[in-house]
From TrEMBL:
<keyword id="KW-0285">Flavoprotein</keyword>
<dbReference type="InterPro" id="IPR036318">
    <property type="entry name" value="FAD-bd_PCMH-like_sf"/>
</dbReference>
<dbReference type="InterPro" id="IPR016169">
    <property type="entry name" value="FAD-bd_PCMH_sub2"/>
</dbReference>
<dbReference type="Pfam" id="PF02913">
    <property type="entry name" value="FAD-oxidase_C"/>
</dbReference>
<dbReference type="Pfam" id="PF01565">
    <property type="entry name" value="FAD_binding_4"/>
</dbReference>
<feature type="domain" description="FAD-binding PCMH-type">
    <location>
        <begin position="32"/>
        <end position="266"/>
    </location>
</feature>
<dbReference type="GO" id="GO:0008720">
    <property type="term" value="F:D-lactate dehydrogenase (NAD+) activity"/>
</dbReference>
<keyword id="KW-0560">Oxidoreductase</keyword>
<protein>
    <recommendedName>
        <fullName>FAD-binding PCMH-type domain-containing protein</fullName>
    </recommendedName>
</protein>
<dbReference type="InterPro" id="IPR016171">
    <property type="entry name" value="Vanillyl_alc_oxidase_C-sub2"/>
</dbReference>
<dbReference type="GO" id="GO:0071949">
    <property type="term" value="F:FAD binding"/>
</dbReference>
<dbReference type="InterPro" id="IPR016164">
    <property type="entry name" value="FAD-linked_Oxase-like_C"/>
</dbReference>
<dbReference type="InterPro" id="IPR006094">
    <property type="entry name" value="Oxid_FAD_bind_N"/>
</dbReference>
<dbReference type="InterPro" id="IPR016166">
    <property type="entry name" value="FAD-bd_PCMH"/>
</dbReference>
<dbReference type="InterPro" id="IPR004113">
    <property type="entry name" value="FAD-bd_oxidored_4_C"/>
</dbReference>
<dbReference type="GO" id="GO:1903457">
    <property type="term" value="P:lactate catabolic process"/>
</dbReference>
<keyword id="KW-0274">FAD</keyword>
Length: 549
């Protein structure tokens, strides 16, 4: 009997081993390809529970199968790739369950664009930790990667907004994870169940390793690597919250079936200061001065992204209506002239300021502009919605433009998410640039310049074996540099196949051992997404790297 034949009677949802489905789910947006053996689309949490119970039983009898969750598949790390069972949430488990006064409850397969449309229309609020892939990604990935984006500079990452998670544990049982007071924690620890055991063991682990955990906590403004053990106990509220280790765990500890997410209301009016840099040497000072004016977001993209955006304006605006597309297209005239006259900037910075009135927002942008007077940069203001949208569209669509418009080359995310303190820019950036130019790649750089989070995409020919060796070498060198400056190997995109081999290097052997123990406490049979967060090797990177661009 095939694996599919064994699972079909247990499910109300879909179970497929069709070649076209297996091929589709063998890719995300990473440099990897890994073909699953089965694709399961559960109808609901009960369906998922049945599947996990089956896998738990099979695994306990020595069968080598596992379960890997997947929402929209926009992950850049290989996180949702497996050669076993992939669970796809977007087909059925895509409902908005509830919208409250300042929160929403949603299933993991709900696309963020639909989530935000619903919350905006009903209560005028949003989840501000959405990533640049907001039109493509889904809630499950946002939670499981602890995503962040353009508003993280001011409003923080997803971890700040998760109030409660409903999950399926590794024995198929359901649990609701939320902040517990001491009495509630004691009650949970008294339960004779896997959930009770998890609470007892995690409480003991965190209590007995406080100093190690605190010392290993990343010192930069954002991090998605490892398990956030430092966030479980809140000394101010005196609460214990295991949802904190599920956020950012890439489905390795439990599978999320429902997320209660806090929302916030943005100020209504925005104004943007755009800064064009010909030389990266001035970047640290520009960032330092503008940050003093507290921008809501502070983003960047480089000359390669800029030039391609100007060349491929029709693709950039194709989803808009005729009038809006025409206006947006015309707004690119200054940038087209800049390219034609050879004045392409090395880096474009976008600092956006929000206020309760248009005048106040514009005043703040002007003050920021005044603060960089005398520095060798060009600037312009983007006050109108169309003008601002032009720059946001380049920033949001930059990775997709790079992926789809360069024949034979692939914008490869393998050093795509490093974070350093912006105060280290004067020393860090020259060393980073020297490292990159020592390899035979062209690089595209985007990211969140305001909090030191760079998305670097080498443009590579993945069909060449020599390129694979260069990828491994550059990977090691960049992460070593980032860690030397006290940074994180991933601010938003998480570990996955590409960074799990470096988690031990980032946190040290003592903290890494606590991550391994956390995995065993939640998932003793290694059912959930094995080889991610802990246990992954550089050999995995080499093995699963795709051989086509």
């Amino acid at each position: 009997m095939s694996l599919r034949d064994e699972i079909v009677p247990l499910m109300h949802g879909d179970v497929s081993d069709a070649p076209e489905d297996l091929e589709h789910f063998s890719r995300d947006t990473s440099i990897f390809k890994r073909r699953p053996s089965l694709v399961v689309s559960p109808k609901d949490a009960a369906d998922l529970s049945s599947l996990v119970r089956f896998v738990h039983e099979a695994r306990s009898h020595g069968k080598d199968i596992s379960v890997t969750g997947r929402s929209a598949g926009t992950d850049m790390t290989g996180g949702p790739l497996t050669d076993s069972i992939v669970v796809s949430f977007t087909k059925y488990m895509n409902r908005m369950i509830e919208i409250g006064s300042d929160y929403a409850v949603a299933e993991p397969g709900l696309y963020y664009r639909d989530f935000e449309k619903a919350t905006r229309e009903k209560i005028g609020m949003i989840l501000p930790s959405y990533p640049a892939s907001r039109e493509l990604c889904a809630i499950g990935g946002i939670v499981s990667n602890n995503s962040g984006g353009e508003l993280t500079l001011q409003f923080g990452k997803t971890e700040r907004y998760v109030r409660e998670l409903e999950v399926i544990l590794s024995d198929g049982s359901k649990a609701v994870l939320r902040p517990l007071n001491r009495a509630e924690l004691a009650a949970k620890e008294s339960e004779k169940s896997l959930e009770g055991s998890i609470y007892r063991e995690m409480h003991a682990l965190i209590e007995s390793n406080k100093a190690v955990i605190e010392a290993a906590k990343p010192k930069v403004s954002k991090n998605s690597s490892g398990y956030a053990l430092w966030s479980v106990y809140d000394p101010v509220a005196d609460t214990f919250d295991l949802s904190k280790v599920i956020v950012g765990s890439q489905g390795t500890l439990a599978l999320v079936t429902k997320a209660k997410l806090g929302l916030m209301r943005r100020k209504e009016h925005r104004a943007m200061l755009v800064v064009f840099l010909k030389n990266l040497s001035v970047l640290p000072e520009v960032v330092h001065r503008i940050l003093k004016h507290d921008p809501e977001s502070f983003e960047s993209y480089d000359n390669h992204t800029f030039t391609l955006a100007v060349r491929f304006i029709p693709q950039l605006i194709k989803h808009l209506g005729f009038l809006k597309a025409t206006l947006l297209g015309l707004s690119f005239i200054p940038e087209v002239l800049m390219v034609l006259t050879g004045g392409v900037p090395r880096l474009v910075l976008m600092a956006e300021f929000s206020e309760d009135s248009p005048g106040a927002a514009r005043d703040r942008a002007r003050e920021a502009r005044h603060s960089i007077t005398g520095l060798p940069v060009q600037t312009r203001f983007a006050f109108g919605n169309i003008d601002r949208e032009k720059y946001w569209r380049i920033r949001h669509e930059g990775f997709n433009i790079l992926r789809k418009t360069l024949p034979g080359l692939y914008a490869a995310p393998f050093i795509d998410d490093c974070v350093v303190d912006p105060d280290t820019y004067p020393k860090f950036l020259p060393e980073l640039e020297a490292l990159m130019t020592s390899h035979p790649f062209t690089f595209a750089i985007q990211g969140h310049v305001g909090n030191g989070n760079f998305h670097i995409f080498p443009l590579v020919d993945m069909t060449r074996e020599a390129v694979h060796k260069e990828i491994i070498a550059l990977n090691k060198q960049v992460y070593a540099l980032v860690l030397r400056y006290g940074g994180s190997i991933t601010g938003e995109h998480n570990d996955g196949i590409i960074r799990t081999p470096y988690v031990k290097q980032m946190f040290g052997p003592e903290m890494y051992a606590l991550f391994e123990k956390t995995k065993r406490i939640f998932d003793p049979l290694d059912i959930f997404n094995p080889g991610k967060k802990v246990g992954g090797t550089i050999a995995d990177i080499e093995r699963f790297m795709m051989r086509s661009s």
